[in-house]
Specification:
Number of strands: 0
Radius of gyration: 26 Å
Distance between the termini: 74 Å
Structural class: mainly alpha
Number of helices: 17
Shape: globular
Order of helices and strands: HHHHHHHHHHHHHHHHH
Strand content: under 5%
């Protein structure tokens, strides 16, 4: 039988490995290392291994002409693996190289983008704000260095700037950047990336109703995991805005498209907020059931209160005294 692509890649990679081990000082060694890194890059689920392989080139062959390209590829691969701190470090190093290369503009834009991704993943608001401000500073420096007139480059810069403003707590500026980006997009308002950032800006501004509509619009422009994520964010925004009926409707639509499990926690949270039984009964502890029963009774729904309290009553013998009382 013919060898599979994976087998061919493995053979080639092993061959380059042996050649590098036997002839580390060869003039062809940097190119052999490059080809081995490219094989890793083309192999599914080996983004981090490929990034480290390109890193190895920059460390072992620092005088090679391949170093700028290796830094660029390593940074992009670290980003693909969501290792944005590592990606930012490579783009920063690339931007600071004294050796002439053709990636000066791109490296700075990618560095700013990496900082916005770090801001988006940060759980600490101070870290998120600082990373976003750092991205804006890099973009300002980039615009001072070269005010590009290329439509796609302008679009990408405004996209990164919009994301940075959103995470810096400046949604109005974020919206302005999106309006400017639309002028450079061939898809206009239907540009999925711009639609996503508009939803993000509404989210960060706590404009929950607008965020729900924006995330649902984005869902119509994308497919697969991206579509599922948009439904999740729309449901989350609806719950934040106490639009629980909207959340249930979003979950229903998502379920019809095969995303029901992913939306279930948000739908159940909405049901609980509406004093309705969630689909996942484990969400209700004894205290939560008692509190729900009390709310239903105060509203005159005696029968519903009885049903809400029945599981707790049936287990009263094993309950703690405080809960039993």
């Amino acid at each position: 039988p013919y060898p599979t692509r994976k087998e061919l890649y493995t053979r080639a990679s092993n061959g380059y490995f042996r050649a590098l081990a036997d002839h580390p000082g060869s003039a062809l060694a940097p190119l052999a290392a490059w080809n081995r890194a490219v094989i890793d890059e083309a192999t599914p689920s080996r983004a981090l291994e490929a990034a480290r392989a390109f890193d190895d080139i920059t460390e072992r062959y620092e005088d090679s002409d391949l170093v700028p390209d290796a830094l660029l590829r390593a940074g992009k691969l670290f980003g693909k693996a969501n290792a944005w701190d590592e990606a930012a470090a490579r783009f920063d190093k690339l931007a600071g190289l004294q050796t002439p290369h053709s990636h000066g503009i791109e490296s700075r834009r990618l560095l700013a983008d990496a900082h916005t991704r770090i801001a988006g993943a940060a759980t600490n608001k101070v870290v998120a704000h600082e990373s976003a401000r750092r991205a804006l500073l890099v973009l300002d420096a980039l615009d001072d260095l070269e005010e590009s007139q290329d439509p796609e480059d302008r679009r990408k810069r405004y996209i990164v700037r919009s994301r940075a403003h959103s995470y810096a707590g400046e949604p109005v500026q974020a919206m302005r950047c999106l309006d400017l980006a639309i002028e450079y997009s061939q898809y206009g308002e239907q540009d999925p990336e711009l639609a996503e950032l508009r939803a993000l800006a509404f989210d960060r501004a706590d404009r929950h109703s607008d965020a729900v509509r924006a995330w649902l619009l984005h869902a119509t422009l994308v497919t697969g995991v991206a579509r599922q994520d948009s439904y999740i964010k729309a449901a989350s925004a609806a719950n934040k805005g106490r639009q629980y009926v909207a959340t249930i409707a979003i979950a229903k639509t998502a379920s019809n498209e095969g995303f029901g499990d992913a939306l279930a926690p948000y739908s159940d949270a909405a049901l609980i907020a509406l004093d309705m039984e969630p689909k996942r009964l484990d969400l209700f502890g004894d205290i939560e059931r008692i509190e729900r029963g009390e709310r239903l009774e105060r509203r005159g729904f005696t029968a519903e209160a009885v049903e809400a309290l029945r599981p707790v009553f049936a287990r009263q013998a094993v309950l703690e005294d405080e809960v039993r009382m």
